[in-house]
């Protein structure tokens, strides 16, 4: 059975070694980083099942790492450890995309329980949501890996990363309304707060690409005050 891998990012050496030892005793494979820059390099070059992340780090803080990961659609679960125990810091971490937030000093048993739950939840979501590489409808062919669309007209267009994320989200929930809140969390990662018009502009682009009559859409529908819906 393959071990779950954790990247532990903590610059306080004694705490780092204690956490690493206890996590390894629980059966996890633990990789270490002691500053933000090194952590980011490791995140970009390897797969982890969980990131345990301190906020106050040399070179790059934990909030910046969290934001960078979510902007680049890296959905690895993040457990933030922080000496900052104000609600404002907790809210900031969660808004940027962290999955959990634990303040120092903490109970070791509680930490290990939270680690186990985050890894279990991530595994369940991964197994329940197979990766969608392509999608076809009405003569259009979308290649999510290549970021390309071959339209029914024969024209080929390249989508931006955010267009791809929003398009995939809508297609995965086809015939159901996707709320603005969910779009903010999964596509924008909360690092900015786009207004309704910003998301509408993306929907307008999809209509130009895919609709026979963009002014009377049949596939990309705005549900006023609620969210957006795709139907093929």
Detailed description of the structure:
The chain is α/β, with parallel strands linked by helices and 232 residues long. It has helices at 13-25, 36-45, 62-71, 87-95, 108-128, 161-172, 180-188, 196-210, and strands spanning 5-9, 29-33, 50-54, 78-82, 100-103, 134-137, 140-143, 148-150, 156-158, 177-179, 220-223, 227-230. The strands form three sheets. A five-stranded parallel beta sheet has the order 2-1-3-4-5, with helices on both faces. It has a four-stranded antiparallel beta sheet with strand order 6-7-8-9, with no helix packed on it. A three-stranded antiparallel beta sheet has the order 10-12-11. Helix 6 (161-172) crosses helix 7. The radius of gyration is 20 Å and the shape is elongated. The mean pLDDT is 87.
Descriptive tags:
21% strand; Rossmann fold; single chain; four-stranded antiparallel beta sheet; 232 residues; Arc Repressor Mutant, subunit A; elongated; alpha/beta; 8 helices; 12 strands; five-stranded parallel beta sheet
Give the arrangement of secondary structure elements.
Layout: E1 5-9, H1 13-25, E2 29-33, H2 36-45, E3 50-54, H3 62-71, E4 78-82, H4 87-95, E5 100-103, H5 108-128, E6 134-137, E7 140-143, E8 148-150, E9 156-158, H6 161-172, E10 177-179, H7 180-188, H8 196-210, E11 220-223, E12 227-230
Parallel strand pairs: 1-2, 1-3, 3-4, 4-5
Antiparallel strand pairs: 6-7, 7-8, 8-9, 10-12, 11-12
């Amino acid at each position: 059975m393959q071990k779950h891998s954790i990247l532990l990012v903590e610059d306080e050496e004694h705490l780092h070694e204690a956490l690493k030892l206890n996590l390894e005793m629980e059966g996890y494979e633990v990789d270490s980083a002691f500053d933000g820059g090194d952590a980011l390099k490791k995140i970009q070059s390897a797969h982890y099942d969980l990131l345990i992340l301190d906020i106050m780090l040399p070179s790059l803080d934990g909030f910046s790492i969290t934001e960078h990961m979510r902007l680049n659609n890296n959905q690895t679960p993040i457990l933030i450890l922080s000496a900052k125990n104000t609600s404002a810091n907790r809210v900031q971490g969660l808004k940027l995309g962290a999955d959990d937030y634990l303040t120092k000093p903490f109970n070791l048993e509680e930490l290990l329980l939270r680690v186990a739950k985050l890894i279990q939840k991530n595994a369940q979501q991964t197994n329940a949501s197979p990766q969608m590489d392509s999608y076809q409808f009405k003569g259009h062919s979308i290649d999510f890996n290549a970021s390309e669309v071959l339209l029914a007209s024969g024209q080929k267009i390249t989508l931006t990363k955010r267009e791809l994320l929003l398009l995939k989200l809508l297609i995965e929930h086809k015939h159901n309304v996707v709320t603005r809140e969910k779009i903010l969390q999964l596509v924008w990662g909360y690092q900015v707060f786009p207004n309704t018009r910003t998301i509408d502009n993306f929907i307008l682009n999809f209509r130009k690409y895919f609709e026979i009559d963009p002014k009377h859409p049949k596939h990309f529908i705005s549900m006023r005050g609620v969210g957006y819906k795709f139907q093929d």
